[in-house]
Amino acid sequence: MKIAKASSVLSTIPTKPSISHWLEYTFVIIFETFLRFFPTSVVDRLSTFMGRIAWICLKSRRRTVIRNCRIAWGDQLNLDQIQELSKSVFETNAANLICGMKMALMKDEKITPHVSFSGLVDLHQQLESSPHGILLALAHMGNWEILSRLNALLAPTRSSAAFFRPLNNPLMNHMIKMRRARSGTKLFSNKDGFTQACSHLRIGGLLGILADQNAGNSGIRMPFFGRNTSCSPLVEILHKKTSATIFYVSMTKIGSARWHIDLRKHPDDEPCDTSSIMRGIETSLNTSPCDGFWFHNRWKLGVKQPFVVRQTRTSKTPHSQNKPWHIVIVLSNDPKICRASLPAIEQLIARENDYRFLVFNAPFDFQSNRASHAVLPKDIPLRDYLRVLDGEQTSPIDMVIFFTAPDEQFDTRKTSDIPWNAGFSQKYSTLLSTRIPLPTTSLYETSTWYHFIDALGCKAS
Q: Which domains, ranges and CATH numbers included, belong to the chain?
């Protein structure tokens, strides 16, 4: 949860609806009216079919889902199985979303037959034995409308609340807030809700937090599914402030218009730090990978400076990743440029612990466990071989860095599923995700390439 950025984010949210806001709002109202005429089981089948169509049509989203699933489960599933999982992600999430829209129109007693529980006895025992509140650590998974009604389904006599990022559409924002108020759920904004949340927990309330999102600069860099990324410390902070008990909530789709909620108390013998909490979130998502909302880059590099770590918090718990980021380095075909760039490449490899580098056609093997040497087959161009190489790995290649002249570059995003690439660029050079302006110094000078890695965020000595 991006606490530090919340104020600036909220300041950009419009207060007056635009024409596009009205069109969006009108479409949602019409679509919800359409859903009223069908039973939930029919909506489930229809939305699953729509998810299948979306998997075929939305190629960019499909690539994102596949990349996320490869990082999380590529060491357990082959590429064909990942492809099938990505299809299930589209189908299940479409059913979760559209059935959630249907259930937003239903009363609590009408929703109850569609939900089953495990761990509910443990939750009630905790509420009876402790005056402190309950922190419900949620992942982005399952039917979100059911999750928003947890107070009525879990503990209707206890006050319930959730953190809420206001929607960009003020009409939709007002509608959601009114519906949550009618269901008895308080909403605390990211901007000024922290103090309210602490007070709510101290009087024994339940508070839901989506704990699996990328926390940006305000997060803690630590492994999530084995790879370092920005993780939200909010659950840990609230626990330390209020002594609230942490329960993990996982929701899985178990049949046509049927969902199961599993409640798991944080183990008493484990510290309540962010590292342990993220492992609990991993367990939730592992119960049903296809229920996870994997449509955004959960593990992402900074576009302007990919090697800069911007997290403002540090973890007090030692941890190490076992799924490093993968970078391909492409050397120039010009021997003089190649020789000039090698010292900067060696420094990049030596300094960046989170990454493993594959260097094509280097004149020597790099003496580092973070780098390996690769030779391009003679019968296949590099732009095509990268796609083959990416598919052969358990986890995807994340970035290609061109230590070349601009005319030797190509857009890896058009020839493979590699999402990021970087290099020196001229005004009309190939589009790169990270474009470093071509310096006035010569590409034959070593200082030029030290400037290049410095611009990427690896400080040269």
A: 6-291 (no CATH), 325-455 (3.40.50.2000)
